[in-house]
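quick one, 388 residues, struct below
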Amino acid sequence: MTDNAAAASGGQEPEDTADRSVGTLELFFDLVFVYAMSQVTILMLADISWAGFGHGLLALAAVWWAWVCYAWLTNTSDHDGPVHRLLIFLAMAAMLVAAVALPQAFGERALLFGLALLAVRLIHVALLALDVRGEADVGAAALRLVPTLLTGPALLVAAAFVDTPGRELLWIAAAVIDFSGPVLVGTAGWNVAPAYFVERHGQIIIIALGEAIVQIGAGAEDSQGRTGVVTAVLLAVLIAAGLWWSYFGYLRGGAERRLRGTRNRDRARLARDSYSYLHLPMVAGVVFFALGVHEAVADAAEPLQPLPAAALAGGVALFFIGDVAYRWRDHHQLAADRLLAAAGAAALIPVAMFAPALAALVGLTLVCLLQTGWELWRRPAIGPVDSC
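---
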């Protein structure tokens, strides 16, 4: 979790810790989350209903928090020892089992998913124990969080033995416990490596966008030979590129500087709120967009059903709203252009329901192009690494 007890208690972290970047071990670890996010989309595609959407959101929350726990764990420790690496590999294996079970996590594979996720969390606790030996401040912070780390997945195991709607209520309770843990326990004693933290969360956005690209391709494969499929694919990729630009175009250098310039407990709170919490709406927006774009590309000449329409345009709107919330918490900037883009995307939901899906894709492309064009016009001379 950290390399230095003094750093964890509020001092400035050593320079090698502050400047470390994401390594190949973390990249390797995140591969299982690429698959897990694709499984969330498959879960929703198998049941395009309000219940299916709710299941997808709860599954995404479980996957997200599993990733968040390890992002905090590795953010100031490279875990280069053989025992650490073995445990991380075991966590990967457990997470892969959970991902395989995820499409049936509210059905016949509920127990397998719950036990696998509990194993992921138990390994996380074991890694915490290895990291905090001899560091009293860090150890106290870690021990305070252990009850919430284990209660959430334990509830998912219990949910496997309960029928609907009790099963869903236990999933909701597990999510509430997971997400409220860092607020109830606090962030005292936790350290943040700015460069690493920003880079790692940028990669999870890329993972989510990668799932959208996969679903664009899957939809096109299902609609080979249909009129407009090539145009639909082009527009869908441009929309995904617009989301990429919204997040990465003018962000990374400034975000790192703000974390680096914040000291003591304020840095951990800023990292918790801006990244652990407010990146989830952006990831959820991309996952919902992935579902909607699969259906839109598969039959671009026909209107979408209400839920895929809401997923397509509403997912883009949710991404922009999440971006606005993140920027406000990170540097108190009200991104009016992104608010307008969110409103424009949301307004296209009825278009997707009553006009050909291709028309909705055209509208969303225009929304993204206008937002990106405005940003380029407003800051033409500022490079993407130096602003925000």
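The chain has two domains: 5-185, 194-378.
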